[in-house]
Structures
1.
Amino acid sequence: MLWFLARRLAAAALLLLLVLSAVFFLLHAAPGDPADLLIEERLTRAERERLRALWGLDRPPAEQYAAWLAAVALRGDWGTSLLHRRPVRQVVAEALPGTLLLAGAAFLVDAVVGLALGVTAARRRGRAADHLIRAGSLLLFSLPSFWLGLMAILLFSHVWPVLPAGHLRSVGAEALPAPGRLLDLARHLVLPSLVLGLWLAGATARFVRNGLLEVLGQDYVRTARSLGVSERRVLWVHALRNAAVPVVQILAVTLPGLLSGSLVTEVVFSLPGVGRTLFDAVLTRDYPLVLGVTAFSAAVVIAGNLAADLAHGALDPKVRDA
Amino acid sequence: MRTAGFRTPPRLLPAALAGCALVGAALAAAGGRPREDAAAEAPARQGPERPVRGGTAVIGSNADISGVNELVVPATLPTDEVLFRIFQHLVEEQGDFDERPPTFEPQLAEAWEFSPDRKTLTFRLRRGAVWSDGVPITAEDVRWTWQAQTHPDVGWTDASAKERITDVQVLDPHTVRFHFREAYGKQLLDANEGVILPKHAWSALPFAEWPKSADWFREHLVTSGPFLLASWKPQQELVLARNPRYYDPRLPYLDRVVLRVVPEQSALLTMLRNGEVDFLSGNVSPADVPAVRADPDLQLIAYWFKLTVFVAWNNEDPRFADREVRRALTMAIDRQTIVDSLWGELARVGSSPILANIWAHHPRLRPLPYDPQEARRILAARGWRDTNGDGLLDRGGQPFAFELTTNTGNQQRADATVMIQEQLRRVGIQAEPRVLEFHTLVEQLDDGTFDAMVTGIGLDTSLDFTSFLHSRSVGDGNNFPRYRNPEMDLLLEEIQRAPDILQARGKLHRLQEIVARDQPVSFLWESQRIHGANRRLRDVQSNILFSLFDLEEWWMAPAR
């Protein structure tokens, strides 16, 4: 088991390094230069060169990359954001709570709705409800989440103005008592978490349905039924618990979707977060910040996969020994 | 005032997104004052109402400020808009540069005077002005600010404004003298560039540390303007509150101004319409204007601006090197139809780099007529004929075909390329529209590897066109068309040397005549700046320079 763990960790570290190297060199290969993009007026060549030298961008990319990697590995120093002129670690740390809040709320929506739809579809396999849910979930997952977001804003903030069009707080909400503040926050979270969560729930529902159908067809379920165990108990206790193993693995698959989906959702709903930080950083070619956010996102995704691998490995010796 | 404006800020979602989001033009620069033009709209008439103190105004902006120390953070328009309300300049440039050369009102300096040879400029500072921590603002602050602005370690992007200032001398705590290498037209503008910074608070940090210490300045923030920065949550909102130590105790009228960052254009408009924000700065697209006009709670504030949009022909390309060909191209483009369909009455056809609302605009200049017949005739005389009957003009076996590029995130420009394609096809020219990501576009502009491009520039208030039209600005400045003309170079240098731009009016007219003759670019449109505001918001003084100009005099009428 230890050997398995060590191998997986080493592979994860290597993967992270590969991702970062690819991002670094692709970003440098893309046209554009922070010296041009950060400033809204045009600089002369001399001024641009002066700034590039000040920011260390006049050195060859390989040298910049080596220096960056060494600083991260040896001192844990992620560099200074060119856009914000603050340590990258701080910028990312500040953006994190917003993303966690959105991702958490969206995941809740995803889990509840996805599970409910998946189970319903599996129970009514082949019937109208099943077809409806399958078509609906496919539609949900195929819709671009930014479009879904804009439509939600149009409907619930404009046509029928019951919810705010963005942000996490109302102006002046800090003066409210604690329950009022919480309610205000919840109101602001409804649209973005529904948009992101429902988009993901489309995929989850299909996963749950297929996993459940596979389990429901197995011998032990038939045995349980033949022993007179109630259908409810068969489904929720016996079948779903076994179907849960692949569903837990979906979680690891959902993580990248959750992160990339939150980027778009954060922009559409003006929410603070890692996604928007990355969006701005890429547009302004803020190299250190792009690398910092990418490293963070890649680490989260890789860690999620690693955890799923480990869980799977612990459950299934065939995987562990392979 | 150095003004931005040759591009849209890279803050909109990418093209695919922008299209669906009905994103309109995102102009890059600041506001202008409501004028009497027939098509311009003034804010709701206030009548004899007296300003009311108190209240909160919420401003929606598509970008956040980048930091509190303008010397080290990227110079973006939202940053300037906010920093100029919490920090002060020596004098305040007024937004009337369309009517006359820039004028100034006292800010930290209450009087200023040139020496007879104009090589020194002396400011007398306001007595009684203090920093937000109560420490008096003195001439030492002014001198130290200049030292910070010009220090190489600080890396201020606007440091070139101080190139011709040789010293800043403290005569007494309230008198400071700027020494110049020579006399020239922009001396006061250059001396005044940049806000005055608190020496007593910020000199503790060595200049070498400045570029990576944006947080330090925020933690040690001491300001001088009518507003204080009460709080700032990056990417979310910042709150300005009344500065009780501001030298004019009447102002500001508003207790608080909240700036909310909303990157998505259509969400911003929804927020204005459902009352979540009170003011939308320059972000109303022409397509949204009817909705704002129809809303009884909203007012539209629109006025002629300083941005001119054109097709830049690559003058180095043999196809576009001949000015007669460029004239023919201009005449083959039906600019009025483009303006009518994209902007309605909110724009007009351009004819000159000095926009029609600016005092130095040539009064007899008219756009070249739309005349495809004449265009065909000129092109034929220059050897462009359809010899093989394929419907396309050709010369030396080469068809007249080229790429017409523009940047992503600007729907009007993208639409214009398609309309131009259709119009040029009628005279036998094939223009292939191409929308490029902004960075790729900049690279093509620098290297001269484009054919023709729909782009624009923002007018500099000093009417210095060196960066746009001088041959030395080819590939190094805003000379996008790569236009070279020794006569123009000389003229530009003469205009720049004139001690008073008013005396250069004749030369500025000559400049426009040359541009009209040579057609280095085909001017498409000059558009209005369009803000949306809640009707309760009064005395909004947005002008060509800033949307939030005189924010301290805005006030909120009580709800009825």
2.
Amino acid sequence: MHRLFRAIFLPLALCLVCCSGERKSAPGGVVSLSPALTELVCHLGQGDRLIARSTACDWPETVKTLPAAGNFAEPELERILAMKPALVVSNEFVNPKDADALRQAGIAVELHSCDGFGDYREWVARMGRLLDCPREAEAELERTDARIAEFEAALENSPGKPLRALYVIWDSPLLTAGADSLPDAVGRLAGLENIVKTEKGYPSISLEFVLREDPDVVIWFAHGKDWKSNPSWSGIRAIRQGHVLVPRDDSALLRPGPRIFDGIADLKADLGTMFLSGPSAEVAAP
Amino acid sequence: MKAARIILVYLAAALAAAVCGVLFGAARIPLSEFVQDGALNPIVELRIVRTAAAAVVGASLAVSGLVFQAVLRNSLAEPYLLGVSGGAGLGAAGAIILGFSAWGFMSVPLFALLGAVAANLLVFAAVRRRSAEELLLGGVMIGTLASSMLMVLITFSHSRDMAGVVWWMLGSMQNVDPARQLAPAAVLLCAATVYLLFRAGDVDLLTFGPEYAWNHGVNARLMTVVLLALASLLAAVTVSMAGIIGFCGLVVPHIVRRLHGGSHRRILIPAALAGAVFLMLADILGRVVSPVRELPVGMVTAAVGCPVFLWLLNRSRAGS
């Protein structure tokens, strides 16, 4: 009887323990393939539930210790399936069929674009539900509304016209931020007016259009590229006058995440310094 | 029509296109604002540079195409044979994706030029007998290999890099440096044109085949290599300057040859001027049709060149 017990029940019991252990690790395991969502998960105090990130996720510093499960919006399916997460979040997938493959394996996939503050609010509320942290999400929503109201009040009280800005996302071809883009929304709160009004998204625009629009300031997001080496740029008045502003941390401004309001405050401060101290006061990245 | 009169007609057309290139663009500028405070309006300055660039690139591609079609005796030959476009594209994409573009504005064109020349040398080294047909096949093979490698690079690239590579593949006159790119390309074009005018008789003989040329005292093999190298260099320099612009080098020599016969001494300068006119007009169209985004000039040349060419082809068939 004792032998029978050892032969049948012990392996069965071990198997049950193993299976239940596996099931225990699945709930709560979150893979984020978007840097902004990774920041949001950590900001809501749920960073310990992240089990993998995208190669682009680099803030807060602690997430760098997590394994990468793909590039931004490009999941590595086999690696994710092996991790058995409960949830995969991203703004979009380069190949939409990847989401079906993950869902078929029983993994929840949440995809939603995030191009402005409305989308950000939507993601905060959604994360509150998905990660079961409604209070933290509610607090973040209140903070978001308060910061937006603060910037808008400052705009209403500021005298004079907003500065006309060109957002350079990439220099060759000249990729800029269009009318409904995140940099456009961010710049508006910082007191800037985008010179690109008719085009949406991130269009490639002509240099002649820029010369015609004659922006007051160029916000340089083309990290690692040098505007001084391209002679075509010298025709732009803002460039000649040195009114080129390289944001202190462009990831804070280009990611629709919790740091975005600090990024806007820095941008406002740098613009103030540039235009108070007069021409050629270039604000360089530290 | 006499040769001099033909050249005058094309020269007038080129001048008219150049004037239009300076007058029309994304912005409407009154003539009174062309000069402001004693200095040229920056928009006008930009237009002058890009119109001149379009003229030099168009003429170079047309001359290059004329030589390729004559020497290879193939009506489908074009300046990007012998791996020029594939090599240049790979060089440019490599510079953009691997981060060399951060070295400065000229790094991408330089890498494109290196890629084009390297692909060209590879074709010449790989094809030992250097007959026209074998060089043609070698060029297609090396071009295909380079294109495949380019696709691999694009697959692993960042979306912003990809935009840069795609822009490069479609061609643009927007970022041509007048001193470091346009002036050397113009000098090369002039030197090549003068040399080809002197050797126009040899080119004519080569169109009947290497044996025929040899029997008439031309070192056919050497001449073939020299002419193909010169035509490839012209194409490589234009690619490094303005990206890959298709159709101009294929269509323009065809049209000029159909209109004015096969004597290269007679059609060389008209072909160069027609190429310049074609690309200047394509560039204007790209600027005017879509003022903010600007259509890539390579797209315009294909969209305009293809129907015009087919119409001419059908018209000449109906006539015969």
3.
Amino acid sequence: MFTSLKSLIDQRLGSGVITHELSTDFGYFIFIHQKHLYHVLFFLKNDPDLKLTLLDQIIGLPEKHPISDMTKDNIDTYFTILYQLKSLNLPYRVTVVIQFDRAQDTLPGISDIFAGARWQEEDLAKSFEITFLESYRE
Amino acid sequence: MIHKNYFKLDESLIVSRLHQKELLDIQRSADVDAKFFPLVTKSHLTPFFSHLPKDFALELQFIGNKVLSARFDRGFFGFGLLELLQGLSAYEALPEVSRLHILSPIFYQMALLLAFERLTDTPTSEHQGLHRAIALEFSRIAHHITVVKNIVLCLELTSLVKMLDELQGLLKNPVATLSRIHQEEHLSAKPVTLVETHDAVFDGLMLVEEIAALSHDDKLVEALAKKCFINITTASSLGLTGPFLRAHHVPYDLRLNQPLRDMYGLPPAISLTDGGDAWARLALRLLEIGASLRWLKPALYRFEKQAVQIDPIVVGITCCQTAPKKRFAFGEVEGPEGDVKIGIFTGASTDSYVARVRSPAYFIGQAIPHLFSHITISEIPLLLYCLGITPPEIDQ
């Protein structure tokens, strides 16, 4: 199913949402811009073909640990955030990867999509001084 | 050539404060589970406690004797861990992480081991895998027995308490035997004989079936039915896994997926119950004890027949001497309370690592406001027991 995830998202949310993708032995990784995060996660959770209803974990990684190649010069404020989602019924997982500069960007809070995001966002905010917008609507 | 590693755990390490008291518990008396992992009992745990930023807290608001709202406050080990681990080699530092959950340390240790082996592409033999699976299942049984015993003790169901004591006693010796294999057979390469273990598993299975039959006691059902209910949509949205999903008849179990599936051979039957309340989860624990014992019977025979060389279940020197083959890796196991996961991420330009831990208790803590709605004050201790929270926690 996930060989076509990019085309599915392109079709439903518009092309260019996924900047690149990666298939690993720990599931499928999609890289998106943070401005698309809320809608992509909403889609992944609620799409009847996907139903990735379980928020497994949100992981914050400081600048030197991005999964893809570094592209920005200012690594002091550069972060990678992973949103790992799972399906309850099928053995697959999708990780949504955001790479951003915390000095310039904020992240949308997703606790109204996944209630379990609240503590994790608070912890990332405290630990890394990342700003999450509480009620995100574009 | 030894590849030098620097293992770094930063303050964002996501670990529930629930585990602190479990760490204290194990200092007081050696737990059955800990014998699987001798490093835990030999190590000194105190440095964890002096760096905690705030106290554990459960805040409750009442109308009359009804809980109106509940909030669970938590903290992190991060600062303490960082200080504790700084400067240690990866080999020295990695076992420390397993102490994050001492009631069932082996689940964390296994997740860490799997992550590290994936990171370094270290192969494991079928016999090693089986050994690990056996250790996990004994640990799962011990965990569930402890939780169920706490519940029936709280309700003063003495006959069930005695039977659970007997079951716990039966399984202590086999666990000790397997623990000794770790230490002795590794060196001497003598054939493994597990006659006592086979007998204990057989007797244990009979006993757990009796316990399951008696668990339909009216007092127990009345105390737990329709309590701590959480629907499946909310549960998955909150990140609750394991018993919270299987008590809704959802066959979600990491033992069905790779790499655990290979490790187990044929995994234990996945137990399921209906209702999604505290009663359904208690019934599930008893079913899971039975399923694990049933799986152990043939698994122990297979284990005996295979090669005798057994490596301890820790991140070995081979792993630590191998340069990472990947930029990141995850290790994931089915813990008794839900998914236990550890991710290791390598640095882009240095030999440093960052680790991230997923602890089920973190998500259970976050779900307490949902679980504790419409309960009375007097029910709180019992329902905390049902969530696998230990007696010293409840005293707090």
4.
Amino acid sequence: MFSRRDFLRTASGAALAVSASSSLVSWAAESSHLAIPGKEDLIIRSYRFFDLETPVEFFNTWLTPAQHFFVRNHMHEPSTLEASSLHLSISGEVEKPFTINLADLTKLEAHAIVNTLECAGNGRAFQTPKVPGVQWQKGAVSTGRFSGPRLRDLLERAGVKSSGKHVMFRGLDEVPGKVPPFIRSIPIEKAMDPDTLVATQLNGAPLPRHNGFPARAMVPGWIGAASCKWLTEIKVLDKEFEGNFMSPGYRMPNQPVKPGEAVKPEDTHPVTTLNVKSLITAPLDGSTARARALDIKGVAWAGEADVTKVEISTDGGTSWKAAELGKDRSRYAWRMFEYKWKAPKAGDYTILSRATDSQGRIQPATPVWNPSGYLNNAIDQVKIHVQA
Amino acid sequence: MFKHNANYYFGLSILFCALSYAQTPSPSELPEGPMQAKAVTACTECHEARIIVQQRLSKAAWTKEVDKMTKWGAVVEPQDRDTLIDYLSGNFPVDKAEYVAERSRGPVAGVKKK
């Protein structure tokens, strides 16, 4: 079959051969942006393979539309995605391993959750000193209604043995070079949670291909890396999966470390749940307001915990006022917030937002540095100019 | 239904690959220098230059990256390693101005939306 990579190779030769005289090429050249089917107006952190960040202005709805839902890939997307040929195997420490095709998977009882999915590296670009990795700023996060069968239902059908302690996911993504495959595992307790899904739908439609069509794990409240895309294998293990993306990847120091300090692997633990965090989505950073009366808006989330409070400061953090939380809510989903403010006079202002959650966690003033720049949940800030 | 969607997306992706490939910055966006050609062959076989040019790292951090990527299949001859590290850390040091990423296109007129 003609794969995407074959196509790109061919296209690269073709593009050289036809030069700019081709109407196709000249049409494309008139555009100021790269076109990515199904993904509009996203910040391109990487094009081959896709890592696409959502600009915060698109977080103005509780559910993020599919075309604005961020994309994080570790590898090349599967060259071909034929729904009819897909099979998902459940094996390992189980009594009755089995394989299920997509048609049968979609016949199983579906469960829906609204989940705020965030890449562990969101906000990495704001770490000091800088750390290597995709330089995500604010928008490696989105919220969607995911639905599909419970992972637990599949595991119970297979009959998990008492030796089964972790559940490993493998996707169909294609590994370049000698790069270790993107395989990770979650503990059996989270796998058996009734809200952990094999999701086939996002916001009532089939998953977009860049977000894992036709099926992905959906591990709510946890870092995005837990929710393996293009799922093809579920394997029950007697211990945590050993591989690059479990260790040294996706681990945090057990104790706070000084910025820039090296950390020994044995002094780390896997990154699992998301932190309490908020983002200001309006007004936009660097914008000019024409009137002094402003609606300060944003979103706040807390992984497996609930957001209990969002506070706004317009005086650099000296005083804080509670924002109003939006009505839309669901476990694992962000809350929208709004705070009506009138600037005392024209001038430059810094607006801060700070969320608190049901576990008593509160956003720190500055990022908590770690060698891979994970879970940056520092207080958000935007700088604006008020004209009138 | 799924098959339809997969084909739909595949068809669209063919169209858009054709339209967008010409716009994809070529690997030559890596800056000129003694190791430019080596960086193109060693690094961009697996990922594009964007992943490199957005980094702002110390020489020590670049060294770790080059060694990790070599382990992962990047072809860097031993005699080129130090020069490649110098090239990357010289062009993408911690104090270089922030990389500004572009956006993907918004809705395209005349193209059927799903």
